[in-house]
Structure formats: C-alpha cells, structure tokens
Write a structure and sequence with these properties.
The structure is a homooctamer of 215-residue chains. Chain A is built from 8 helices and 9 strands. Chain A is α/β, with parallel strands linked by helices. Chain A has a 5-stranded parallel β-sheet, with helices on both faces. In chain A, strands 1-2-4-3 form a 4-stranded mixed β-sheet, with helices on both faces. The complex binds adenosine monophosphate (4 copies) and magnesium ion (MG) (8 copies).
Chain lengths: 215, 215, 215, 215, 215, 215, 215, 215
C-alpha cells in the first residue's frame, strides 16, 4: 500500500468470486477506503456478504469499501463532460477522486453541440486548478476548454460513438492533436486514470504547502 | 464539358509537358475558364508559353486559364479556416469557387486555440448560405461552427499536424464523428471538392429561382 | 429548441427508461414532432405509455412523437440505395427528412451489381435538387451517380459487408476518394446526418425564396 | 526457366549494376524474351551496353531483352483503366502480356467520372475472354465493369490519389468488397501480376484446345 | 437472370422470413438451381415449407433450391485448403461451383504445417485448370501452391486465427503480396466469390470450344 | 497574449521568410521571450537579421527571442529520457520550460535497456513535483518510472524506432496503456506540449501559494 | 507424429463432438500425452466419456490425455507474468511445457506497476536458461526483464487491456520494438507457441549433450 | 559492458561525427570487437580516422572495430533468406553473429517462389541448432521451414515489397500467425535482433556444457 493512495481493484474480467476474495484479503490486511472500478451489479451484490459499509455508484460502476474521506485541504478539480453517454466515465473519475481524498465539481452536458452551455460556466472553468474534460464522438471538448482558459487540462476520450469513431480511437487521436497547448491524454474511457493523475498533482501541491506551513 | 462547369486539370503527378499539352488541347476545343489545381511554380512557368491570360494563385497552387467570371446572382458562401498552415487548402477552395462562378468570403485564423476570434464573427457565420470549414490538427473547427449556427457545413480536414495526426486521418475521422448534426466531409486537403459541392448546391438554388423568375 | 428543427433523441446506448423519461420531459416542455433514432422494438413498446400519437418505422428504427408535418414548399430530395441491407439506413434518412419538413422520393436496389436499374431512373436523378446515395460493400454507388448527373450528392457508407469491408470503413474511404467531383460524406450508417445536411440546404433555399416572395 | 514463361527481373531496389549483371547472366544462359519491370531511365541506359535488341516502354517502366513474340492462338484480353495517372500500371500489364505471348486491347480513360465512355465500349467488354480493370481513387471501375458484363474480371488498384486514399489501400479494399460477383484482385500497382494471372488462364485454354486439335 | 448463371441469395443479415419470401418469389418466376449462401440451420428449416427439392450443405451453410446440374464439358477445378477450420469456406466454394455447373475436386488439410501432404498431391495440382487455395492463419498456402505449379491460382483468405490475425486481414494481405506470380485474391471467407470467378473462366473456355466444335 | 505565457511560433512547414516576418511582427508589438519550435538551421540564420538577442538550441531546434527569465519560485520538474535519439525532444521540452519560467533538471540515457541507471537516480525521481518521461522504441520508460515513484508523470512518445514502431505510434499506444496509474500522454515528439502542461500545473501551484503568502 | 513431440488439438472453434472424435482417433492410433488447448469446461466434460486419465487445467483451458511425463534432463525455463489476468496465458504455457517434457518455474504478478517484486527475484531470472515473459497492457515486462538479465527472452503479449490496447496489438507492437536486444515475440495470448519454441530449444540442447555423453 | 557481449552502436539517425565520437570513447575504454549497425558509406569513411582495424560489410551496413573472434565451441546457426533484396538483412544478422562469437552458415534465395531450392537443402536445415528465416513480401518462408523441420526458428520480416505490403507489416503479421508451431518473431528488418537472440541461446548452451566439462 503506497502511503495516501488506497488499494484499487480493477474488476473487468474478474469473476464475482475473485472480486469478493481479493476484497476480503485487503480488508483483513486492515485496509479501508478500497476502490473497486468496472464493477457490475452482480459482483456488487456478492460483495454485500462482506458486511462492511460500501459506497456504491451504479452509474460509474464503482464501489468504495469502508469509505473514510479525509479530503485534502487545497485544490479544486473540475470535471466537464460532453453528452449523457459520457456520464459513466465522469462518474468513475469523480468516485476515484473521492477515494483519493479530492473534492471535485461536476458539470455535465456541455459538449460542442450545445457550446453556449460551456461559455455559461466560463468562470467555473477559470477558477479550477485542474480540469478533467471527458468526451466521445469527435472529442473536441478538451480543445475548446483548453482554448478558453489557462487551467491545465486532462482529456479523457470515451468510446461513445459508432462507425468511423472506431470505439473511441477517433476522439483519442483528436485529443492528442489538440491545437490548444499542453493537454495530457489518458486511455479511452479511463476516468480512473485521469482522476489519479489529477489527484497526484493536487496531493503534490498540498504536501508542498503543508511542509511550508509547518516551518 | 458539362454545362456551366469548367474543365478542371488535376496537376499532381503530371509533368509540366503533360499539363501544357492538356491545357493547349482544351483551349483549342474553345474552352475558357479552365481550372488547374495542385500546380507547382515550375509547371506554371511552362504555361506562360500558352500566351493566354492566366489567373495564378501560388498559395492555393491553382491557375485559371482565360478567366471569365459570370458570378451567379444568389447565394453566399463563407470559408473559415483554422491556422496559417490551412490557408493553401482554403485558397484552393476559393479559387475553385471563383472558377465555378461563386463569390465567397474568407475568414482565416479562427481555430479553436483562439476560439474568441470565432465568436467575434458569429453574425457572418449566421448570414452565410453554406460554410466551408477547414482545419487540421484535431479538426474541431467544423464541430464548433456547426454547434454555433444552423447553416449547412462542409468540412475539409487538412494534413497539417504531425505524429498521431496520421497525415490528416485524425481530423478527417473527427469531422465524420461530429456531434453537430449534418456535416458533410470531403477528402483530406480537398479544398477543390468542398468548393465544387458548395457551388453545385448554390447553382441548384439559382436555377430554381431563375426558373420561377421567368414565370 | 432551434427554430424549425425538432428535438432529436439518439437512443443507442440508452435504456428504455431513459428514453421514456427524456421523451416525457420534451413533451412537457411543449415540443412536438420529436424524432427518435436507433430505437429498438422494446423501447418503442415502452413509449406507448406516453399515450401520444407516435409514427413508428421499425425498419428505420425511428419514431416521431406527436408528428406534425409542415413540408417546405420547394426542393426535391432523392434517396437512392444499393442493396436490401442498406434499406434501414435509407429509412432512417427518409424519416429524418419527414421530421424536418422535407419531402423525398426513394429509389432502392440500384447498386452497381445491377447497374442498368440505375440508368433506368436517370431522369429522376437529373431532376432532384440533392441526392442522398447510400451503399455498403465497396461503396461505388455515389461515384456512379455523381458521374451521371450534376446534382449535389451526399454519400452515406453503410456497415453492410464482411471481412475486408472493415465494418463500413471501406465504403467510407471509397466515397471520400470519389473521382466524381464534390461529394460530401457522412459517418457510416448515418442516414440521420445525411438527411439533416440535405434538409438544412433545402431550408436555406426556401428561406431565400420566401424572403424574395415577400418583397 | 518455367516452360513458356520468360524470366522476369523486378528492378525496384536494385542498382543499375545489379540489373545489368543479372540481365547478362540470363542472356548467357541462352534466354531471350527477358522481361524487366520497374525499370527507370538510368538503369535502361545502362542496359544499352548489352548490345542486344531491347523493347523499352518508358511509360510502363518495362523492357524486354531479345524480344521474340509467339502469340498464343486463342483468347482475347482487354485492359481498361480509369484516369491518365493509371496508364503506367496499364502499360506494365500490356507489356507483360506481350512478353508472355498474349495479345491484348487497351481502352483507357473510362473511369466512373466519365461513365458514358464505358458504356460506349460495352460490345468490346462483352467480347473479351478476360478483362483487366485498373483504377485508383475509389476503385469503382472493376465493380461497374463486373456489373455490366459476364466476363471474368481481374482488378488492379493503383496508388493514384491522396489523403484518405492511403496510397492505394482504399481502392484495394473497395475492389475486394465489390458487389459484382467474382472479381480477383492483385496488389496495388501490380500490373505485372494481373497480366501474369490472365495469361496463365489463356495459356491453359490454349493448351486445352491444342491437345484436342491434335486428336 | 443472367444466362447460365443461377440466382443467388446472400442470407447474412436477412431474417428467415425474408429469405423464405425471396426464395418463393424467385421460384414463382420459374427459376431453378437457386443458390443460397450464409444460410443458418433455422433459416434452412423455414425453407422446408417451400416443398421443393433442396440440396443443403450445413458445413458450407449453403442450399440449392430445385437443383438441376448440367455440368460443363471441359475444365477441371481443384480446391485445396489448409486446416479443419477452413473447410466451411471450401464447402461454400464447392457448392457454388456445383450450382454454376462446374465439377471440382477437393483436397483438404494440406496447410504448410504439414507441407509433405501438399507434395504428395503435386500431380493433382499440375493437372488442374484452376486452383482455388483457401487458408487462414498466415495465409501461406496459395504462395506455396503457386510456387509449385504453373496453374492459375485464386486465393481465399479465411478468418481462422486469433490476435494478430486481425480477423483474416493478415492472410488477405499476405496473399496479395505473394512472391508467386499472378495470384488473384478475393475477400476474407469469400468461397462464393472465388468459385464464381473460377467458373466464369471455365465457362468462357467452354463457350470458346463449343463455338469451334460447331464449325 | 495570454498573461504569463509567451508567444510561440511553430516553425514546421513555414518558410524562413514567414518565420522572420511573424517574429518581427511579434517583436514590434512589444513581446519578448518569444519561443520558436521546430526551427531549422537555415531559418535560424535568417533570424539573425532581427538583431535581437537570440537563445538558440540547435539540438532542440528551438530559439527564444529577447530571452528574459523570471523563474517561478516553487516547483521542481524533472525530465528523464531513454536513448540518445530522444534528446532533441527532451531539449524541446527543457527550452519550453525555460521560456515559460520553469526550472528543470534533465537526466538522459536512463532507458529500460540500461535500467540500473534509472534506479541510481531514484531519489531524484522521488523529490520531483512532476516528471516528464520521454521515450521511443517500446515506450516503457514512463511505466517503469510511474511504477517506482508516486510523482505525477507526463509521458512523451518519440518517433525513434523503425518497422513495427510505426513512426512513434507504438510507444504512444504503450504509454496510454501503462499499468502504472495516472500517466498523462501527449502527441509523438511533442516535447513542447509536455512542458506546457507541466508548467501550467506548476504555475497554478505558485499562484496558489502566492495568494496565501499575501494574506 | 513427430518424434518427441506429442499431438496437439487446438479446440477453439471446434464442437465438443469434433474434439471428442479427434481425441478418440488419436488414442486409437496409440498416442498418449495428447495436449488439448483452448478447451472450455463443456468440451472437457464431454471428454470424460473417453475413460482415460486426463490432466485438466481449467485456468489454462488445457488438458493432457493419458499424461506420461519424461522430463528432459537439462535446462531450466522460467515463466514470469504481469497481472492476474495474464495467468491463463501463463498456465497454457506451463501445461504445454509439461506435455513437451520440460520443467518450468512460474513467477506471477511481477508486472511493472509493482516493479520491486521483479527485482526481488533477480537471482531466479539470472539462473534460467530461457525466460518466457507474459504481459498485457503496455507490454513492458519483457523489456524490463531483458534489460536486467542476459538470458534469452520469449515475449508473449496478452489481450488484457481496453481501449487503445487494441485487443493486445499494443503490447505486441511494444514487445517487437523492445530496446532490450534479442527478444523473440509470439502471437497475442499464444502461451502455447512460446512454450513450444522454448521447449524446442531446450530439446536441442539436451540432444546435443546426450550425443556427447554417449561418446 | 555485459560479459561476453560486445558494445553495439546503432547508427541510424546519428551523424558521422556522433558515430566517430562514440566509437572513440568506447575504444578508449578498452573495448574491442565493437559492432556498428545501419552504418552508411559516408559514416564508414569517417571511421577510417580511428586508424584501427575495421571489418566492414557494405551490404549488411555493418562494421566491427578491432575485430577479435573467439567463436564458441558448440552450436550451429543457419540463416536462410527469400529473395535478393532480403540479403542486406541476412548480412546484418551474420555479421552480428560473428561479433557475438557464433559461426553460421548462410543459404540465400530459397523463397517460396522457388520452393524446390528449399527442399534441396533439407539436410542442412535438419542439422542446424537454430534457424534464422528471413523474408519480405508475404513472409511465408519461416512457416514453410517450420513445417519441414523440428529446429527452433527465429523469423525476421523484411520491408521488401510494395503496396499492401505496408512496409513489412504484412510479413510481420504473417509470421506471428504461422501455423508451424513455436516461431519467435523480431521487428521488421531486424537482422541484429534475431542474431542476438540466437546467439544468447547458443551461449547458454555452451556455458551449460562447459560447466559440466569442468566437472
Ligand atoms: N484538388 C483536387 N482534389 C481532388 N480532385 C480534383 C482536384 N482537382 C481536380 N480534381 C478532379 O480531377 C479531375 C481531373 O483529373 P485529371 O483528368 O486527372 O486532370 C477533375 O474533373 C476533378 O474532378
Ligand atoms: N512489377 C512487379 N510486381 C510484382 N512482382 C513482380 C513484378 N515484376 C516482377 N515480379 C516478380 O519478381 C520476380 C523476380 O524477382 P527478382 O528475382 O527479385 O528479380 C519475378 O519472377 C516475378 O514473379
Ligand atoms: N513543437 C510543437 N508541437 C506542437 N504544438 C506546438 C509546438 N510548438 C508550438 N506549438 C503550438 O503552435 C502554436 C503556434 O502555431 P502557429 O500560430 O502556427 O505558429 C503555439 O501557440 C503552440 O500552441
Ligand atoms: N493455443 C494455441 N495457439 C496457437 N496454436 C496452437 C495452440 N494450441 C495448439 N496449436 C497448434 O494447433 C495445431 C493443431 O491444430 P488443429 O489441427 O486445428 O487442432 C497444433 O499442432 C499446434 O501447432
Ligand atoms: Mg488553455
Ligand atoms: Mg449547426
Ligand atoms: Mg456529378
Ligand atoms: Mg459480371
Ligand atoms: Mg505458379
Ligand atoms: Mg506512480
Ligand atoms: Mg538482456
Ligand atoms: Mg517445425
């Protein structure tokens, strides 16, 4: 267990039994605040046998066992996402942030098809310390956000789309080619990874400040 | 020669001699307003032997032999493009429009990295009958334009970019996946094709109106 | 709601419950003529609870809630398609046109394998204002149509085919490379997008003429 | 040396010296009718040192050393091609046929952009025993030919095109997906391979008939 | 109905009802020898209602309605295939040949992993007029066959394999790059197309000979 | 000009004349600290006409006009890179950081082929606030770094490699799939973008602390 | 039956009946030590009818009929793998080694995300004669292993991952580009192939030594 | 310097000056037997300044500085290659083997187009301890070799070919899908890597035997 960072179980491709067993082992070792991602309903139901508190998010397909939140003091993360179908990825990101001790604000449904909704929240965008921008289809949202504000942007392409979308490869490639400078990209649908990166930056900032406050 | 549409010579992969000879043959048949695209400087110089009027655009790599403009009465086409490097494609489009009897207005350098420049021209966008939107990199411009206005949009991806841009495949795929409804896409760097499509629509509209005016 | 354009719900990846709820919300806001695309039978059955008039097309997987057709005065759109398997995409296009106030004529089964059927309708092709050409396999139909007539062509590749068809990428790429000039291409299976683009052009033409008629 | 089939030297990636040396060696072994493909001007000039008769085709980039034509008695091969830029591939095919003892007829510039030119030669198409159809861009020509006639078709995609043409991959994929039944496809720009396949079929037919004639 | 060539129904993506109805229509028009490909068990069972003779091949997923074989007089087609899993494609080819009036000989399980089995049948290979070579995995079989004999080869890649096989794209690409000269390639799993091409060549040969026999 | 961020000229695909002219224009507007990237020797030589101080880095292909460094107070950025051929990308990153007011430490030649060199600098890695990890070939370096330390990692794939490296697509894809959590990836060879992202994070942190210091 | 090498049945895409029948045939011919790979539970259950000893590994999806182990005298093979999800591929490899008469040691869960676990077994790595390194995601494990030790490495990419993992193509490409020298790569998930290659090398070594021992 | 393994300089993308300097540094450290790969003529000429013995192979584009061969006692490596154009890769492999202390035998021009040449050397193939099989085009050679003999095979795809060869990706993919069991594949044109892997196995075998001989 790395200090400050909870254990994470990636459930995709694991049986309900395997997930239950790994969870039990980690709990026995004394862990709490254990994050499970890509957890389907059936596997969640199985976990109820553990008889511990579980914070379950069916939309984001996540759960936190024995949740215990000690949010960090500083830093504001904003999650913005394009369409309704991108919400599960956004929820995975926000739950991961919660487990990692970061507060975040979520603004959904601000994709480029209704771009005025994005301008309406320009102040929110400006005041964030990091923005996680999530979009499928053509993946233009991080570019537009990055063109509007100076805040660092982490871009998450989603597999939302069809045909020439190529299961998310199109928004992924688009985000990597953004003409807004300095956007960091993670894998398709990887809300967890974006949140982890954002939180690691915020944690660094908090450590930095705390060290100075002690002095 | 299809009525109303001038002859076009696509010069890529042809020698200066071949281009000269095809031009001569078309002129002998009585054509004027002959459009040459993808014409480099050397081939242009060779054409001077023809001793006819030539309207040459080195940026767009186009020439019109014996130009003769009879602009159509109705219809307003707008060309918008992203960065400086997209201008040659935009010039190919505007020269093609000229040869096909369409007037157009050009607004360059309104890519998403400086998105405020695009909003500044919203009125122009709204008043166009067709918009040709040209962009490389992540190809987000047509999506943003299409999200702002109701005008039909023809999108041209350019090969501007590097690495994961894949020589323009990335903006091409992005434009095909736009979440702004109803964007028609042409091949990478194909300013000619976008202009041809736009002009054919405008011509249709003019014919329609003219027929009714006669009545 | 953008003026003249009805609300559209893209049902792919949404549950029956979500579709029902979004529909209800839009109806409550006073919308009618609401278009639903990619709607399967189960979700359609669910919508019957709404107890409003529904114009359902199982082939095109579309429905229009509280249909209300005020077809535009001018403009003739023609939909041509290749084989039997392309018909669902063609139906999606024609239903979208209906919802957007455009009349269209449909000519099916004129793919290149039976090319004489296409020549038999040459007059129909010539008299259209816009042609939507839909094909899978090698996607040659828009090229052949574009080579026969001067009408603007919107090309829709379909995912019909197997093996090296790559789920529609092959006809998509082929259409983008058509040697018939000026063909605008939309995403694979995107009958909706083609219809939307065609209707936006026809709407522009109608506005133009109406403005002049008033004078 | 396989009986009836001349030696072939594929010159791409070989130095003028290597080509000269291989030619000399084959001539010393008593070969004549040696075919060289992908031969550039410089390497051809070098071959003049051999002081043998050379039948050189700069357009097709081929040469035949000590040509000696014994055309087969039966079988009619037709080569049709799309645009001007496809002619080099067509010439490689026709020179290969010549070296292999097959007569052929060539009809150029009948691509789908000017499809009426193709219909004008329908009788020619019908009377052929094998048609080699060569095209770049979207590669629709073999499909159209195959839809018009019952003759077996060998399709050759060319690398003519740009952008989403992907150096000929697009017409290659299109030809493999033709909805005209039973088209055999060879590699991009492989005029040699198409001619070789056609000639092997014609040779088979001639052997068959000759055997019966003897009886 | 093209003379000599039976009607063909490609059943993939059609419902049992659609297949039944198309079959009935063709039978009513007086057709016999109707070929159905990609026909699953359920759809076949449905066809029993037609109460006509049906020649069904579950392995090849084909059926021939009202079969009526008038095999052509001349020409010998050989089908060779690699592994057990390639047999369905080979059966599709042989059934198509039967419906098209061609006799063929089949030699299975001669893939390169057991290459001695191929040499054992060298005489058979040599005596064929056309060889259809079918293989998945790395698709080397047509190359090996083409290197052994002078007979024209039609290559069929199959989707047999996994991982970097890319659903048959790997053997397809390999066959197109064969260093054995003059191999014609058809789409992945397209046993029908290979058979159609082979039969059209054999038919040409038969017509040719018959014409001369009459004289 | 965005506050705190200098103007940047991306020189790829621009002529020496264009670069000179844009530089002159920016200088006239009163800018200093202007960063030029992808600047070749010839274009640099041309810039000497400007007669201003130029900080030129031929390895990184960058220049800073009228350099003026006001490094930020807090934050430590570390650049690590794989092999010798990755150094130009690393230099582009470090020069960009300099222009953006960030100090950085560079550790080169710590690729996985000599992995012990990486362990030798573990302390340096641990004490950084952000690590920019640059690698070509299989792109494993960011994964290894991310597995060793808890610091946020920005990964830059380079086009160093050949064959199945696919011009950098292989390390790009590898970095996006890292099993070390939370790595942000930028485009191939995009040292500029990685530096820009890192500096925007560090700037955020500095602003944050400064605001608190004032209180 | 090749001497020393048992018969292998690859069960993917075969029915339980086919697998049973092939097994029966091989047993009747007197084979023992028959290896079945990609065997699912249902097909395994069917095999119980054979009433022979079966060594079944559900994790590796393998079975050995009439197992009979005569392990070779010399040579030590080590299997290392990344994450839990790679274990089935590792088990396929170890079962194949067993059937081929090789002993092996397995070390699981030493992926780069927990790289310290790999260093902990450095002595084991050093003392192996061949290492089979198995990993999905970014596929960095073989590079890291190859950088640490001088032992020959056979790399197996797995299909573990999502999005830009492209079903294992990403680790496959990464392994082919390893900057650790001399890594041999097999197909995605091909534990069998890696084991076969390793065992053929070990067998060679044993033969070599045995021959000398006799003298 | 790893024991027994000489230093290697990969010269691609390095200037003559850089290569000279790295060579000098390594010589100063006391190295001999330094291998340079991908070395062009100009860079070689530059190295003459070093005034040490250089073993240069222009075909393989390799050089060995201060060559010093202590061939290992046991083990026989065979290099087989397809066509003339594959020879440079084969030479790179054989020079690498020489530098690494391995003797090898080379058999060129045994590609599948002239497959009888391969059978003629079956005894040679059988008696080898490892075979390095090198081929471009469709990459069938390793499969054929692997099907003929039981010796372990290392496969090297080359970039020889055009069009659908995709610069060597086609033979690379084919080799990874070989139905001959247990073939290890290296990167396109990577003669060095194949030789390194082969030599590491042979070295292992020698160490093993030597250890036992001492006892
Ligand atoms: N820039 C361009 N991109 C694509 N197609 C073009 C372009 N310029 C001209 N064309 C097409 O090329 C045809 C002429 O080709 P060609 O006969 O080879 O000169 C014209 O009729 C146009 O349809
Ligand atoms: N244009 C071509 N495209 C593909 N293969 C060719 C071509 N010309 C010749 N070949 C083949 O290349 C072989 C000769 O190759 P090489 O021995 O390298 O000269 C001939 O036997 C032909 O099979
Ligand atoms: N090496 C680089 N890679 C990617 N983008 C860059 C690079 N250098 C500069 N840029 C971006 O390119 C923009 C300038 O482009 P331009 O106006 O065409 O000179 C800058 O604002 C940066 O965002
Ligand atoms: N898991 C596997 N992956 C790849 N090839 C395999 C595998 N298992 C067995 N094989 C190969 O498949 C052959 C048997 O194929 P089959 O005759 O179709 O059962 C064996 O000789 C092996 O070469
Ligand atoms: Mg920004
Ligand atoms: Mg719009
Ligand atoms: Mg047209
Ligand atoms: Mg036909
Ligand atoms: Mg042959
Ligand atoms: Mg870490
Ligand atoms: Mg090593
Ligand atoms: Mg073998």
């Amino acid at each position: 267990l790395r200090q400050g960072v909870p254990e994470v179980i990636y459930c995709e491709g694991k049986t309900s039994e395997q997930i239950l067993e790994i969870s039990r082992r980690l709990l026995h070792k004394g862990n709490n605040n254990i994050l499970l991602t890509r957890l389907d309903q059936t596997s969640y139901d199985k976990l109820l046998q553990l008889e511990v508190e579980i914070d379950y998010n069916p939309l984001g397909r996540t759960a936190i066992l024995k949740p215990e939140f000690n949010p960090m003091k500083y830093g504001k993360i904003l999650i913005v996402s394009g369409g309704t179908s991108d919400i599960p990825v956004a929820e995975e990101a926000s739950e991961t942030l919660k487990a990692l001790g970061c507060n975040c604000k979520k603004i959904y449904d601000v994709g480029v098809a209704g771009i005025h909704r994005l301008f309406a929240v320009k102040d929110e965008l400006d005041s964030a310390d990091i923005i996680i921008a999530i979009a499928g289809m053509e993946g233009a949202l991080p570019s537009v956000v990055g063109g509007l504000v100076e805040v660092p942007v982490i871009a998450v392409p989603t597999s939302v789309g069809y045909g020439a979308n190529l299961n998310g490869m199109t928004p992924l490639l688009a985000m990597l080619n953004s003409c807004a400078s300095g956007i960091g990209v993670v894998n398709i649908d990887n809300g967890f990874g974006a949140a982890f990166l954002a939180s690691s930056m915020i944690r660094r900032m908090n450590k930095f400040i705390e060290k100075r406050e002690v002095l």
